[in-house]
């Protein structure tokens, strides 16, 4: 696993947390929740792509 992946996920998490706090303090809780949900979807997309490449590597190793 590359360290870039961890930095990317951490960066997305920090940005989402800051935006959530700003929107919550401004009284826009519904938009803050949407930003949080979008951040989770983005991170899950990145993780699923990495899991896909892991399965591809396992198939290659075992000649499946």
Quick summary of this structure?
89% of the residues lie in helices and 0% in strands. It has one domain.
Topology readout:
Layout: H1 3-25, H2 29-62
Structural commentary:
It is a single chain. The chain is mostly helical. The protein has one domain. The protein is about 90% helix and about 0% strand. It is built from 2 helices and no strands. The radius of gyration is 16 Å and the shape is elongated. The mean pLDDT is about 95.
Beta-strand content bin:
under 5%
Q: Give the topology string: H per helix, E per strand.
A: HH
- The structural class is mainly alpha
Query: Into which percent range does the helicity of residues fall?
Result: over 70%
- CA gyration radius, whole angstroms: 16 Å
The major beta sheet can be summarized as: none
Uncertain segments of ≥5 residues (pLDDT<50)? none
List its traits.
about 60 residues; mainly alpha; elongated
């Amino acid at each position: 696993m590359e360290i870039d992946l961890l930095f990317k996920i951490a960066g997305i998490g920090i940005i989402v947390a800051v935006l959530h706090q700003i929107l919550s303090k401004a009284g826009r809780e519904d938009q803050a929740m949407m930003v949080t949900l979008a951040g989770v979807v983005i991170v899950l997309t990145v993780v699923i792509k990495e899991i896909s490449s892991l399965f591809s590597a396992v198939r290659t190793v075992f000649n499946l």
